[in-house]
Amino acid sequence: MARIAGVNIPTNKRVEVSLRYIYGIGPKNAKIICDQLGIAEAKRVNQLSDDEILKIRELIDREYRVEGDLRREVAMNIKRLMDMACYRGLRHRRGLPVRGQRTHTNARTRKGKAVAIAGKKKVTK
Predict the structure, then answer these.
(1) Positive or negative CA dihedral for 96, 99, 101, 104?
(2) Which of helix, strand or coil describes residue 46?
């Protein structure tokens, strides 16, 4: 099992797909890494030599901000917005959509499960 940037990447998948398991590396960056190191598209992680895995690890450490560092940077950016009390920061603080989406309906991902409001009880005679 190959371990890159503190993440165990799947061994039975193609290298380009396996690299996406690292936070901060998407399809584009995975393809760029494979092209830079000359790794074939069809090659699987379990077919890589130790030298190739080491080259991938060194390239990612040198040129990309991934995993803990990237998560920390994103969290600090959000915290900075919240401390400034700007509009986006207030939306983060309240757990509402930040980028202008409607909230009358939808927005369930940010707002959480809908809570029913109790109506008036019927009085029986």
Answers:
(1) positive
(2) helix
CA distance 81 to 90: 8
pTM: 0.77
- Token readout for 85 is 């009390």
d(CA 9, CA 25): 12
Question: Please, where are the H alpha helices in 13-66?
Answer: 15-18, 27-37, 50-63
Both tokens of 73, joined, read: 């940077």
Which residue type sits at 118? A
**What was the pLDDT predicted at 72?**
95
**From the first residue on, what is the mean pLDDT of each consecutive set of 10 residues in the chain (125 residues)?**
86 92 94 93 89 92 92 96 95 93 90 83 72
